[in-house]
């Protein structure tokens, strides 16, 4: 894999660290032990990640450059202009590697009698099928733009793929055109099988095959088509029109994103130079944009939806989400959690309990109020329908919905409008803060009193992602915790008032202070000759303040184990700075998503599950919640599953100074933590 530039001071630059996370995703596509179709899908994830990186992070650095600033303090000691160049060079190398991996996978697919063919490999029987398919399904969906020197080029859609067409006319003049690859048609078309052989053609190559049908009114001698793609700045810019509702402002801003500044231009490296020059001139691409020569196909994110072709042998075995001992989908969740707390660890255990809990609340005459935070909903959300059902049944339902959940804004806007129509009280976050916490509180009338029930999670209340993201959800009736949750909802409604919390750790007011106090306790224990340790699992750590505090703890002798899936600006294992810190990253079948903090606390560990990564935005600019685990069995379970992850020597990569993404290899028995975690819960059910 590509060896990146290394740090220039005490931190790894955030953007470079993220690119190395994406390199770990690419390693999954390269891994011969990963099933073939899954390898293609990892290529799709790699490409999709890269698209979002350019829309957000590259665009942010480019804004710093455009503002005439160096940005060294914010960027880990690297000048913004230099960083843009480093990013482009890393991405060019990664793109080249991804093309080699794709070629390798396609060769292996052919060994399995799966052939991805292009327009030059079509036989007579396939030709007839393709022409029929093109005329019926593709042609009606096509948008073809004829380019002209006198006509302004329409704004090309962000991350859409286009075929750039060049025609040499009979009079030797040139005519250029663009064909937008339609998103309404599946990118991969399955052709009729021939014996045991399966054949697939991409829409791109079908269009190349049918160019004469598309441009039959032009008198040309030669025609060629090469793919291009443009990525635009994905930042939302809000206007100050006081007459607009917040929903309208977000909606307008999402629409404006479609015409944001271009930040990346990817093109087929075999494109004719005159075509490339013409297009770049038309689009106003300049040298601060990332210009990346690529292969014949772009938008490889579509490989995430590569057809299964009925070949289950070329995919991961589907796991059956396990039940949680003591909970039943056929009995009352309220009755169960009144007696004790329960933990769900999706996707190993079924997320259906959360939906069942809300459905039960919607129907229960004793339930009076439901309050919940929502960040990303599933496309078809049973969570949303349960809340609407509750409102229809006369419950007081409050939803703090984050309309600015990046790239899910449109879906959240649609659900917000639907909920508003049904009488649900909507709260659109807090001025200047995103609501990223994952919590719900339900008040139920029992006798003459209201009793609280609820849940707190590390992940979104999203049935779709719960099948592929690993996340903890605590179901509880612990009145201590839920009283604090009530205060947070009061803060949403009266955010000029800052509340104090006895049990929850909350951002933006208390997270840094509370975590520092917990770290200081470990430092103090070590100074007194007691053992001190910290174990952390999170998606990212990029806050230099938090990194420095962990360096301080390491220098005091506190042993620190970190499992960081994505960005890690901290550099472990450096003598005199971080020699007591070890860090790994696990990338495998599921997306590692939980945030867990474990502090030794002199032999009585303190354990928290959290919505917050240790990034500046999570600590200072978002409403986040870290929840203590008081139930001893659940505490043991979280420590056990952390230990299983820490033991991984199959899919764990070592995070270190060189950033080479080396796999952790040792002589111990092989542990693939995601599979071992599932077996842990299978055994738990048996015992």
TrEMBL record:
Residues binding Mg(2+) are 376, 406
Q: Which domain of life is it from?
A: Bacteria
A GO term for molecular function: polyphosphate kinase activity
User: Which cofactor does the UniProt annotation name?
Assistant: Mg(2+)
Q: Where is the Polyphosphate kinase N-terminal domain?
A: 11-117
Q: Where is the active site?
A: 436
| Catalyzed reaction equations | [phosphate](n) + ATP = [phosphate](n+1) + ADP
Chain sites annotated for binding ATP: 49, 469, 565, 593
State if Phosphoprotein is listed as a keyword: yes
Q: Start and end of every Polyphosphate kinase middle domain?
A: 126-306
Q: How is it modified after translation?
A: An intermediate of this reaction is the autophosphorylated ppk in which a phosphate is covalently linked to a histidine residue through a N-P bond.
Keywords, ordered alphabetically: ATP-binding, Kinase, Magnesium, Metal-binding, Nucleotide-binding, Phosphoprotein, Transferase
Q: Which family does it belong to?
A: Belongs to the polyphosphate kinase 1 (PPK1) family.
Role of this protein: Catalyzes the reversible transfer of the terminal phosphate of ATP to form a long-chain polyphosphate (polyP).
UniProt-recorded name of the protein = Polyphosphate kinase
